[in-house]
UniProtKB/TrEMBL annotation:
Gene Ontology MF: a single term: zinc ion binding
UniProt family annotation: Belongs to the HypA/HybF family.
Keyword Metal-binding found: yes
Cited Gene3D superfamilies: 3.30.2320.80
One Pfam family of this chain: HypA
Residues reported to bind Ni(2+): 2
Binding-site residues, Zn(2+): 73, 76, 110, 113
Metal-binding among keywords: yes
InterPro entries in the record: HypA/HybF (IPR000688)
Name of the protein this chain belongs to: Hydrogenase maturation factor HypA
Amino acid sequence: MHEWALAEGVVNTALEIAQNKNLREVKTLLLKVGEIQQIDLEIFDFALKELSKDTILENAEIKYENFTAYLLCNFCGHKWAFYESFNQLNEEEKEAIHFVPETIHVYIKCPKCGSPDFEITEGRGVFIEDVL
Ligand code: ZN
């Protein structure tokens, strides 16, 4: 399970950060989640809580913040924010991208030249913003 492996990495890293900061207990774990990520947040959140049991992370409040994804056109070099294109899609298309991010190339084209050949340069994955 992808979410569990990811959660394990986050918990281990958060504990390391907490140790370096000499925290006795973690009150808040602030995470940044990319706009284009393939994790089920509900499972991920559950996994985090399970893996935090009996650690100083156990009672931490977990906060999630989105971070903006950027797309870079391979044809004309234009770079734009994912949400600019995403907001123009209908609900069905939005859902398709949410569940299968690879379909992004089907629904989104470069706003400048219309090419479907672009890369996701930022906006994937989960990062620890802070451990408090
Ligand atoms: Zn382009």
